[in-house]
Amino acid sequence: MKRTADENPSKGFIIDMDGVINKGKQLIPGAKNFVEKLKNGSHKFLFLTNNSYYTPSELKTRMARIGIDVEDDHFYTSSMATVSFLNYQKENASAYVIGGNGLLTELTKAGIKITNEKPDYVIVGETEQYDYIKIVEAVHLIREGAKFIATNPDITGPTERGPVPACGALVAPIEKVTRVTPYFIGKPNPAMMYWARKKLGLHSADCFMIGDRMDTDIIGGLESGMTCCLVLSGVTSLKMADKFPYLPDYIFNNVGEIDPDTILSRRQRVMQ
User: Fold this and answer.
1) Which of 18, 120, 206, 249 is catalytic?
2) CB 125 within 8 A of CB 52
3) In 156-243, where do the E strands start and end?
4) pLDDT score at 238
5) Which residues are 157's β-sheet partners?
6) Res 42: pLDDT
7) Which residue in 16, 154, 212, 249 is the catalytic one?
8) Do the domain assignments include residue 68?
9) Of 1, 12, 8, 98, whose CA–CA distance to 53 is shortest?
10) 231: Cα separation from own chain's centroid
């Protein structure tokens, strides 16, 4: 029997970047072919990153350098999710910000006032401009009533020389002094997944989360009701994955093994 359009819904792919598409400046085998299949099949897709430092335009340029040609609107960052959160929580919000260009650009574009005069929020993201004076100011503002949020909980970020402090590490001194734990926006927070799939305009049951980390990508996708694909080209090995109390729907050696045209979502598997 022929299925109706509702029985054959569009599929969306939300894809982690480092460890899935690339490792630093090196493209992971099969990644370019996978992205071309997404484009040729007219599938909806987003590259999802916890890194708040870069703008979508900068990410587009960085990806183009390693052979992946996509438009700005195919990227969704923790900075963008932070703006979505603020818009959801409070109109005309103001914030004191410790963060890079990606975060500042998204906040400014959304009309969020950047200030140290009684801000509603203190926001921390990845930055190269991190000093004692800013830490002290953030501590004072939180003690004076500003709410504390951070773009993501990642303790480290990858570089060619090895791991470096990321957002989760930058909030540590502020958290220890104020004894206030920030609300982390990025993965594995299901809120980030919700806003990403909303950008795609699809139901979570029709979305795939593809990542290399069980503790961020896979659990975030699972808690959002998405079909989860673990790739073994990054952080997580098969042995490591087996130790978690939850499982992905699929496991692949790399993203090149995924055929976006034939892979079945949770909704499609139930319908079979």
Assistant:
1) 18
2) yes
3) 156-157, 164-165, 183-184, 207-211, 227-231
4) 94
5) 164
6) 81
7) 16
8) no
9) 98
10) 16
- CA-CA distance, 15 to 208, in Å (whole number)? 8
149 in Cβ contact with 85 (< 8 Å): yes
Residues 170-222 have pLDDT tens digits of: 999 999 999 999 999 999 999 999 999 999 999 999 999 999 999 999 999 99
Which token pair is 58? 């900068």
Whether 18 is catalytic is yes
Q: Into how many domains does the chain fold?
A: 2
Q: Are residues 194 and 171 in the same domain?
A: no
**Segments forming the whole domain that contains residue 87:** 79-184
For the chain, the average pLDDT equals: 93
Give the span between the Cα atoms of 200 and 208, in whole angstroms: 12
pLDDT per position as a tens digit, 103-146: 999 999 999 999 999 999 999 999 998 999 999 999 999 999 99
What pLDDT, in 10s, does the model give residues 80-102?
999 999 999 999 999 999 999 99
Q: Which two tokens stand for residue 230?
A: 């673990």
Q: Give the CATH number of the domain where residue 169 resides.
A: 3.40.50.1000
Residues 153 and 224 in one domain: no
Same domain (yes/no): 179, 193? no
Sign of CA dihedral 211, 213, 217, 222: positive
In percent, the amount of the chain with pLDDT more than 90 equals 86
Q: Catalytic residue at 73? A: no
Question: Is 65 among the domain residues?
Answer: no
Residue 5 has pLDDT above 50, yes or no: no
74: nearest Cα among 17, 18, 128: 17
